[in-house]
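INFO  loader      accepted 1 record
INFO  loader      residues=88
INFO  predictor   begin
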Amino acid sequence: MLTKRKKQTVIKEHQKHDRDTGSAEVQIGILTKRISELANHLKKNAKDHHSRRGLIMMVGKRRKFLEYLKHTNEKKYEKLAKKLAIEA
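INFO  predictor   done
INFO  writer      dumping tokens
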């Protein structure tokens, strides 16, 4: 589970300005962190199919944000994909 403190650090890493919490970069960062934590959970609990469905939904949502960012600003997309080690 993504704690409030972890979420705030991810937001600070990716925000454009002080009050930015909803830009595509921030949303991608938060989803990436949640995906990695849930993937670790699923390694320990292989039969947790409900969490696996949630993981698949989060991956799809992150993919849509990445596509949006790629179409609007390709330089930011490449920079973010490299920073988060996401396949571009």
